[in-house]
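If you are new to this repository, start here. Below is one unmodified record pulled from the training split, so you can see the exact layout before writing a loader.
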Amino acid sequence: MHQYVGELVDLTDSALNRFDDLTLDDARARVLSGDPAAVRAIGGSFAIVAREGETVRIARSLDRPIRYFLAKKVEGPALIVADRIDAIHGWLKEHGFADQFHPNYTRMVPAHYVTTIRIVGCPDPSPSYTRFVAAGPSELPDDTDAIGRAYIGALTNEVGTWLRRIPSDAPIGVSFSGGIDSGSVFLVTAHVMRTMGFNLGRLKAFTLDAGEGPDLVQAREFLDAVDMGLFLEPITAAPGAFDADEVIRITEDYKALDVECATMSLALLRGIRERYPDWRYLADGDGGDENMKDYPIDENPELTIRSVVNNPLLYQEGWGVGTMKHSLTYSGGLSRSYVRTYAPARHFGFEGFSPYTRPALVEIAASLPWDLLTGYDTDRLYALKGEIVASGVRAVTGMEMPVFTKRRFQHGAIDADAMRRALPWGEAEYRNRFLALYA
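And here is the target side for that same chain:
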C-alpha cells in the first residue's frame, strides 16, 4: 500500500506577527495544542501555522487574512499556506502544478477559529474548526455609560500596548474621517500618548479628499471642536486616477462595497507614501461598525433587526462557520472584508493597527444585552454606537467627542456622483475582472 507523504509549504511572513508578550515559538505551541483558551490568550496581531506529523493547525487574528490550498502530488498532498491567492498560484506555477489551480479552490481561514487540517493523502478529510473568540454571557448592565467605560477602557488598553511596542520616536498616523470610530481612535491615541509622556508632535490625522466629499469638512469640525485642528493633514486624490483593476488585483476580492472602500484606502495610502516615504505606522477605526452593529439593515435583503440583534458576531464573521451561507473560499463578515484594509497597507509598506478588531473589544460588544438596549428598534440600534463611544471617551479622556451621522469611507471621501462615474460597475463585473487574472 502506498504511504503518502504530506508536505506543508508555509509562505506566510512570520516577521509580520506582533505579539504582546509571547515569542513566535510560544504562540505556535499554543496553536498546535488546539486549546482555545491558550490561543485566545495570544495577544496582538498574528497569522500562525503549526504542524505536528500529519496535523496542521492555523489560527489568525481578525486583522490578518490567511489562505490555503491543497495540491496533489504523486508522493502525497502539499498544503500551501499564504496571505494571498497570487502567492499560492505563484508557488504552484513554479513547481508545475498550475493546472490544479483555480482561485475558488483556495480557502480562507476564518478568524476566531483554530483550523485543523490533516494532510494524509487521497481523499483528505475536511478541516475542523475550534472557536477561540466567543460571545460570553453579558456582564454589563443595560446602561450605555457603564458599557462605554468598559468598551473605551479596553480600547485604551489596546492603544497603550501598541504604543509601547513601536519605536518611541516613530510618527503615528490615524486614517481619519471625523466619524465615531476613527474619531475615538484618534482621541484615545492622543490621550494615551499624553499619559505616557510621548511627544504629540508625532501624531497626525490623515483625511482623504478625493473630490468634494463631506469628510474633510467633518474632520475639520471634529478636530476644531476638541481644539486639535492642528493635527489635521488632508491628502488629496484625483478620481480620474482610480483603477478598479488595480484594486481588484491588490485586494483579490470583488464585493462592490469593499472594492469602493479599498479604492479610497489605496488613494489615501498612496498620497501619504508620496508625501512621507518612510512613514510606517497607521491606526484606523476598522471593526467599530461591526462591533456596534452599525450598518443600514435595509440595504441587505437578508437581514432583519432580529437577525442582527440575535447573532452576536454576525458582522465580524458573517453567518458563521458550518452554516449554509458560509463561504469556504472567502469566509464572511469582517473576517473576509478586512482585506480591504490589510492588502492596501501591505502594498504601500505600512503597518496598520485596528484596535477595534482586538478580541477584548469584540467580546465586550458581542456580549452586550442588545435585545434590552435596542428593544428590537432599528433607530435605537443606530443611535447606540454614538452614545456608547462618546460616553466612554468622555469617561476615559475627559473630552466631549463630536458625533456625526454614520457614512461609509467611500461615501465621505468623494462626491457620490463622482464615485459612481469612477466606479460604475457592480459585483458581477468585478468578479469577472478578478477571475480574468487567472484565465
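Two things worth knowing about this chain: Residues 144-165 form the longest helix (22 residues). DSSP finds 19 helices and 15 strands in the chain.
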